[in-house]
Amino acid sequence: MKLDTGKSASVSDAVASRITVRDFLPKPVDPDVLREIFEKARRTPSGGNLQPWNVHVFTGEKLDDFRNEVVGKLMKGQSEQDTFPPYPAPLWEPQRSWRYKLGEDMYNLLDIPKDDKPARMRQVGKNFLFFGAPVGIIIVGDKRLEVPQYYDIGIYLQTVMLLAREAGLHTAPQGAWRAFPDTAKKHTNHPDEHHVLVGMSLGYVNADAPVNSLYADRAELDELVKFHK
Ligand SMILES: Cc1cc2nc3c(=O)[nH]c(=O)nc-3n(C[C@H](O)[C@H](O)[C@H](O)COP(=O)(O)O)c2cc1C
User: Fold this and answer.
1) How many angstroms does the Cα of residue 228 sit away from the middle of ligand 1?
2) Secondary structure of 37-56 as H, E, C letters
3) Nearest ligand 1 atom, CA 19
C-alpha cells in the first residue's frame, strides 16, 4: 500500500490509509482543525454512554516542556512504574509471532540489526518525543473503570485516528506513555482518581522517513473471522 499523505475520501479509505506513523513533520496543525477532530470524536459510542475518556491535548511549549522532561529522565536512566503491562506475559501463539514480526519488519526498514540494542532503544525512545509530532495526546481514565470501558477508549482512539485521516493528518497510538505516568500527571494535572491509559502522536507524516513505509501485516480474514451460516 502506497503511503497516503492526502485526505481520505471515505471511511474505507481512512481505514486503509491509517498507519502508525513514527516520524512526523514539525509542521503545526491548525488549532481549528485539531479542535474539530475532537469535536467530531464526541460522537464515539460507549457502553451506557459512560464516555470514560479524559483527553489531554498538548501543543507548542506545553508539548515541548512535557516531552523534554520525559526524554531527560530517559537519558538519565530514570523510569516510573507502568500503569499496567502492555501485553500478557508470556504471550502465546500466534500473537507472539505477530508481535515479533512487527518488530523485525520495522527494524529491517530502519536498517537496525538485531544485536544493535542501543539503536533499538533509541528508536523506542522516539515514542517519548511523540515521534516529532506537533500534537501529543494523553488519554487518562478513572482507576475504577472495568474492562468494557477500555473497549470504549479503544473505539475513541480509532475514531480520532480516522478523523485525523479525513483531515489529511496521521497518528500513532502509543501505549508507551503508560511508562511515564508520574511525569504525564505533572503535565496533565489530572486528578488522583485518574491514571494514564494511552497516548497518541498526531500530525503530518514525514513521507520520506523509511519507518513510515511500514504497512504492518494482518492475519488472513478466515483466520480470525468465522461466518456461521
Ligand atoms: C492501543 C495501541 C497502542 C500502541 N502503542 C504503540 C506504542 O507505544 N509505540 C508504537 O510505536 N506503536 C504502538 N502501537 C502501534 C501498533 O504497533 C500498530 O498499530 C500495529 O503494529 C499495526 O500497525 P499499523 O497501526 O501501522 O496498521 C499501538 C497501537 C495501539 C492500537
Assistant:
1) 30
2) HHHHHCCCCCHHHCCCCEEE
3) 26
In a domain, 3, yes or no: no
Element (H, E) at 66: helix 60-75
CA-closest residue to ligand 1 atom 18:
20
Among 174, 196, 205, say which to mutate for ligand 1: greatest number of ligand atoms within 8 Å of CB: 174
How far, in Å, CA of 120 to CA of 129, rounded?
15
The per-residue pLDDT for 19 is: 98
The answer, yes or no, to whether residue 2 has pLDDT greater than 90, is: no
| pTM for this predicted structure | 0.97
Write out the three cell numbers for 139.
488519554
What per-residue confidence (pLDDT) applies to 88?
Answer: 95
> Taking the CA of residue 160 as centre, how many other CA atoms within 13 Å lie in the half-sphere pointing to its CB?
27
* Tally of CA atoms within 13 A in the half-sphere of 218 that contains its CB: 9
> Residue 42: which domain range?
11-214
CATH of the domain at 58: 3.40.109.10
Nearest CA to ligand 1 atom 7: 174
The total number of structural domains in the chain stands at 1
Residues with Cβ within 6 A of ligand 1? 19-20, 22, 102, 127, 172-176, 198, 216
pLDDT above 90 covers a percentage of the chain that reads 97
6 found inside a domain: no
pLDDT > 90? residue 116: yes
